[in-house]
Amino acid sequence: MKKIIIAIDGYSACGKSTTAKRVAEELGYAYIDSGAMYRAVTLYFLDNHVSITNLKEVERALEKINIHFENISGANTTFLNGANVEKQIRKMNVSNHVSEVSTLAVVRHAMVAQQRAMGKRKGVVMDGRDIGTVVFPDAELKVFMTAEMGIRAGRRQLELLEKGQALNLDEIRENLEKRDHIDATREESPLRKADDAVILDTSGITLEEQVQQVVALAKEKM
Ligand code: C5P
Predict the structure, then answer these.
(1) Is the pTM of this model over 0.80?
(2) Is beta strand 83-84 parallel, antiparallel or unpaired with respect to 198-201?
(3) d(Cα 147, Cα 151) in Å, to the nearest integer?
(4) Per the annotation, where are the binding residues for ATP?
(5) I need a labelling partner for 71 at 20 to 30 A (CA). Which of 17, 26, 33, 45 fits?
(6) What is the mean pLDDT of residues 172-191?
(7) Residue 141 CB burial class (10 angstroms; 0-12, 13-18, ≥19)
(8) Ligand 1 mean position to 205 CA, how many Å?
(9) Is residue 183 in contact with ligand 1, taking CB distance under 6 Å?
(10) CA atoms of 106 and 65, how far apart (whole Å)
(11) What is the distance between the alpha carbons of residues 39 and 29, in angstroms, rounded to a whole number?
(12) Half-sphere exposure of 38 toward its Cβ, with a 13 Å CA cutoff?
């Protein structure tokens, strides 16, 4: 069977990462969480007081940033300059700044170059906002995930609670709406459905159904 690239894009908290991770497991593919990379850059900028309005400062900071992923006890784990930052990058202060950081062309170019290198050998499932449109425009399978806002906010609340963060629904909803707006309206590679992407609305289906639908689509392309 031929190895392919599966690009999964869509709005925040539609279940992209969970689906992508499971699909990768089923197919024996690598899973790459591109959002985690933008989150790691944001964490670095916050911790090191990098001003995103100062391009020179941003460029200098990017040179010092090294991101890699490791599988720790079956969980995809993000490392920033050798430190495990998986927990920190999911916190609300990062979520509240990541979309602004992600509007910067220099940041995007640096991340896209790394993402392309990670997908060079194919056999990858990558999720994000611009994977099917910019990172891998020739991906064999492109999926664009959507879900109703109420459902997305509820799912994210549960996910954060499982990680020990209790947040109210309004705060989560506000963050999702703000990020979606910035992501979809930015100048540099805005979030949009690729013309050849399959739409997957996850509002009324289970995670298992989402996974099986994507796996079935992938097998048609292999
Ligand atoms: O996927 P996740 O919700 O963790 O992504 C966090 C943020 O990173 C998004 O809201 C978006 O601003 C940015 N992002 C992006 N391009 C990607 C992946 C994520 O701009 N490919």
Answers:
(1) yes
(2) unpaired
(3) 7
(4) 10-18
(5) 45
(6) 96
(7) buried
(8) 23
(9) yes
(10) 13
(11) 23
(12) 25
